[in-house]
Amino acid sequence: MTSLQAVERTMSELNLLGPDGWPAWTQVLQKAHKTNYGRSDDPIYLHLASKTRLGAVTLLAVQFQDFLQEDGRYLLLQLSITDQNLLSTIQSNQVGQLAWQMPKSREYFHLTGKFYICSAPRQVTRYSPPVLSHLVNQNNAEDLAAQRQASNQFWESKRLEQWRKLPAKARASYTWPQAGSTPKGPPSSFQCLAMEDMTATLTSNAGNRDSVMSQDSNPMSLPSSPSSVTSFRSRWNLTGSSNNNNNAGGEISTPTSPTSSINGNKIRNDNPAKILHDIAFDNFCLLVFKPLDIVHFESSPLPPKRTIYTTDAAGQWAVTEANP
């Protein structure tokens, strides 16, 4: 490579950085998202392709949630901890592909990269999200444990933030049985059709679980599932009269003992609506995706345009114009 070619390559790499300092493809993708979806609340589904450890190809649909504001290189998708098909696919192979077809602008993106799972703190999963550069400072530059703690707190705040953005109907779906499993669950498994956010006290009463669990409002449009509440109490070893969970009319009765203990903290378990909300929030995960290679195809111009973005081991991006 001549010195002139080296300078041209360096300038090309500099041009790949957008005004916010992130690779230029992030601006291209976010602009396409805004053009095609605007302020629409309709769910956006992408196709995920991966391979299992045995080499079998899997093709799944995942729902797009948001772009990570603090780092434009990351996409946020929805994942339920009960979705064993998707969860096992990611935990078997962290590398996968996303196909995103833009319906209005006649363009699509093929993104190859790595997946990370941001789950509730009490859940144990593989491939936790990475420590982002803005979380490393002079106070923890040499302390990996402190960096990981700051990262965990950051990603949990992102999970809470995205949970609050979900529509009420979407939150309710996190109380339902595993998607795609057979036979289909009984109607009582799908009683919850809308769920309002009940995490408002998490910020003002951090660590005060008794305050969080003692709200009296009922956010569900229908009664909560007795089987779901029973499962939640069983998981946390909540005390109370198990025989009173269902009465003759199928409604949920208040347990004999309204308080129990979780990790030494007293909580109230006489609010089935809040219990079911916590089940749903516990199931809600962020599937974090970091693209490493992107193919952007635009079919509107003639001839069509195909642009390939690639990154090397050092994280430097390069762009190539390819035949359509």
UniProtKB/TrEMBL annotation:
<feature type="compositionally biased region" description="Low complexity">
    <location>
        <begin position="217"/>
        <end position="234"/>
    </location>
</feature>
<feature type="region of interest" description="Disordered">
    <location>
        <begin position="205"/>
        <end position="264"/>
    </location>
</feature>
<feature type="compositionally biased region" description="Low complexity">
    <location>
        <begin position="241"/>
        <end position="261"/>
    </location>
</feature>
<feature type="compositionally biased region" description="Polar residues">
    <location>
        <begin position="205"/>
        <end position="216"/>
    </location>
</feature>
<protein>
    <recommendedName>
        <fullName>Pyridoxamine 5'-phosphate oxidase Alr4036 family FMN-binding domain-containing protein</fullName>
    </recommendedName>
</protein>
<dbReference type="InterPro" id="IPR012349">
    <property type="entry name" value="Split_barrel_FMN-bd"/>
</dbReference>
